[in-house]
Structures are given as structure tokens and as C-alpha cells.
Amino acid sequence: MKYVSLYNGFKIPVLGLGTWGMGGGMSPNYAQDEKVIAAIQVALKLGYAHIDTAEMYADGHTEELVGKAIKGFPRRDLFITSKVYHTRLRYQDVRTALEGSLKRMGTDYLDLYLIHWPNSRVPLEETFKALNELVDEGLVRYLGVSNFNLIQLQRAINLCHTPLVTNQVPYSLYDRKYVNNGVLAYCQDHDILLTAYTPIEKGRVSRDKRLKHMAARYAATPVQIALAWLIQQSNVIAIPMSTNKAHLEENLGALEVELSADALRALDQF
Predict the structure, then answer these.
(1) Which of 88, 160, 185, 269 has its CA 20 to 30 A from that of 113?
(2) Contact present, 47 and 203 (Cβ < 8 Å)
(3) Superfamily name and number for 7-197+236-241
(4) pTM
């Protein structure tokens, strides 16, 4: 696994495992629990170390599945991210939300805790009062946000007592919203990670004829080209989701693809 290093010895894998959809959508679906647990364990054995989840995923059930899957794996070797939902950003709600996430995953701390979505009805100062305390208490190592625009991101940075690590947003060859709104450039200029979710657009990139043509030149797949384009950018990491072993292996193969400057420029123009 390749890592990105930031401040104070902080490092994070450039490819993580997203878990949205594992165990249900907005509510639990227990039908594939065994498959999901097995898939996460396969991913860890393949070399994934970063698991990204959220209390909102399957109303907490995804975190329960993550907790079952990581049993037997050394906690110090894992990087676990979760998120507090936008309806739980009041001071006490944040603390209660974290307690729930830790309990469901059976861990004493999170490596990274994010505000899942901004909420204009709750003062950001109140939310960060709780988040900063959780860091001080050792329950969370690092803080970040998700789906924040540039103004919201700058406010969060000013309220965070430790350097804000990331803004997790949709970013792919087909989705450049956070390039166009200035967030990516700001992150790159201020040593903040942009974490790309939906980086392969639920497999859509695998059907792109333009990517197939480029992939053939690199003895790679379109998915690997799309992921390599992301993780070769400064301060960008990605968290594709899959429960399929072949796809998990395929995604990891992006680490071995070194795109030329010309290829990167061509992909920039997609």
C-alpha cells in the first residue's frame, strides 16, 4: 500500500475501502451480512488498511459489520474513518454519536472523524467544541469534514484546534464540482487531503471507450486508469467500494499504474 504523509507523522493510504451500501442503504439489510464481513476481511488480507464508514450507513449496521470484520486484525495496523451525520451536530449529540460508533465497531478510538454533511442550523463552533474535546481525550486522532464547499471548509479549518486532515467529496473523471468550486486547489495549497468518494462512478468508468483505449496502452483496466488519475494528483486519495474480490484486487492494481504527463493532461480534459 502507498501512503500520503501530512503533518506530525500523519499518514494515510492513498486507496481505502468505502463501505456505503454494505449492510443496507439508509436502513439495515441483514441478508448479506456474511458476504460483507468476508469481503472486508478479504480486503484487509489483500493489503487495504483504511476503512471508511459512517453512522448513517444502514443506520449504524455498516459500522457493526466493520466491527465484526476487523476482529483478529491488529488495530494499530488499521486506519478507521467514520462520520457524524448532519442531524447530530449539537455538542452532546456529537459525543453520543461517537460513543455509538466506537461501540458498534468495538474500538477505543477512531483514526479520523468527519462531519458528514454541513448543517446551517447548528453553529459550527458548537460542533467543533465537541470534536476538539474528543481529540483531546484521545477518542479521535484526527478530524475532517465531508461535502463542504470552500467557505465552509475555511470556517472548519479556523475552528479546528488541530490541522484539519481532509474534505471528503465526490470526485471522479466525470464529477469535477469540487475542482470547479476551488476546493481541490485550496486543499493542495494548504496541505489538506481531498478524499474522493464515488471515484469510479459505480463502475461506469469500466464502460468508457476512451478509457479502454488508454488502458490498453498501460496493460491496465479502465478502472485502474480512473483511480490512478486521482491518486497521482497532489493531496488526493480515493475510497472505492466493492465486495467482489476480483474488483478489490483490480482497484489495488491502480497503485502500480504510472500515468505519463501526457496521459494525465488528456484525462484532465475528459
Answers:
(1) 185
(2) no
(3) NADP-dependent oxidoreductase domain (3.20.20.100)
(4) 0.97
